[in-house]
Amino acid sequence: MKMTNKIPFENLPELMQKLINEVSELKEVINNLFLEDRPLKYLSVSEAAEFLKISESTLYTKVSKNQIPFMKPDKILYFSQNDLEDYINKGKSKSFKHIKDDGSINLGSRY
Question: Tell me: domain 40-87, CATH 1.10.3470, correct?
Fold first, then answer.
């Protein structure tokens, strides 16, 4: 495929940022597609606490404060393992390398 449009050098930073944004959006779409294919597994309170490596009382506290996803049909608590995995992943911190690589922060030329 031959590209016939010539891009002025001055436009490169803006076009690069657009490209970065589009790649990020594509990554999110791909991740969401992958996550949708995970099998559903529902956990009891004790199983969810064990999965999260927290005590049952801590889990009940998180439920009462709506800090964790749960379902409560017929007065029995259930937890989707997929939702709990998503909950854990939301707590991930980006490493310095990821922050630098994704261009979300301009770190200057020192790094």
Answer: no
